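Researcher: Good morning. I'm working through a list of sequences from a screen, and I'd like to move beyond sequence-only analysis. For each chain I'm collecting a predicted structure so we can compare shapes side by side. This is the next one on the list. No need for commentary yet; just the structure.
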Amino acid sequence: MEETQPINGIPTRANFLPFSPPLLGEEEEKEIIDTLRSGWITTGPKTQQFEKDLGAYLGVPNVLTVSSCTAALHLSMVTLNIGPGDEVITTPYTFSSTAHVVLYVGAKPVFADISPDTFNINPNNIESLITDKTKAIITMDYGGHPCDIDPILEIAKKHNLKVVVDAAHSIGSKYKNEKVGNKGDIVCFSFYATKNLATGEGGAMVSMDPELISQARIMAMYGISDARQIWQRYTPKGSWYYDVPFLGYKYNFTDIQASLGIHQLRKLDYFNQRRRENAQVYYEILEKCSNVRLPIERADVYSNFHLFPILLNLESLSIDRGEFIDYLRAENVGVSVLWPPLPNHTLYRELGFNLENYPESEYVFQRIINVPVSPAASVDDIRDAATAILKICNHFSK
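Model: Good morning. Structure tokens for this chain:
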């Protein structure tokens, strides 16, 4: 296949703008070196410090860091006693882990379609799906825009359901002036390399209920009863003895990851503000372009703009979404599609799900592109990206 060339032969940028690189500095580097020299590279004192700092930032007293957001979501299912025969309502427009964890525990995911403005689960689509088998709802904050959680909590209270928030995208975001983290039975965050707070791999689960986090902490370290102090067995005063009363997992966080997290957390509000500044550049340059629909931020939320999702008006363009992406890359701008809806994947199709039953998710997926908004990109970088989008739209507008 012939490689797509930039329009008019000259790309908007001379060098490639990556989609979502992490922004790491000397502070993280020095902390990593200190950790390596300390000899304590697995779960230890810096992990405890990061958990303490994270709880203070979120305003949530009970925090457990784990190996990934997927691990946090899985532990949520386990600690909430979700199992075979149960049903869990969630969104079809999410990364696979959100529903995978339901399958991990032998339960059945049930999909409620999204709101077309935010791409989050639509509260109005939930209640009709509740049966006597329904035990929980998992929401997801797409792109850092918090879902409309209050009506979902009301539905859950009415039907005695648990609520887990997949906040993989939304650390530092706010819903009705409160940071994401204190609404729902358990809230799960991601610290993957592309996230607003990056530790390479990693995640956390938080709750206002200390018992849930205490139980999850045990399950995250093989089921060892004294999991909070188990690492101290290697210190002069630590005990060698431990018991394993439960079948657990190996989901612990490490001090190497915490070395990054401690400083990434201190910079998080700045990172999120930079993302919002970058987002504003897109709004300024593209607001009058009829070929695209820019993301909507509801009046009652503060988005951290983990993503900047754009919907293409395919009816007014002479190229499809795939071709648009090829041209944008030819202009030296990184781009992604997040995500294929779960019913579009082979696994979920074989489980009987059909994307046609979720028309809003299908509509968004056919048109969405995600463009750079990372704080690692300067305002000039984002101006280039927006200019490239406008260039393509103008060239291929019907």
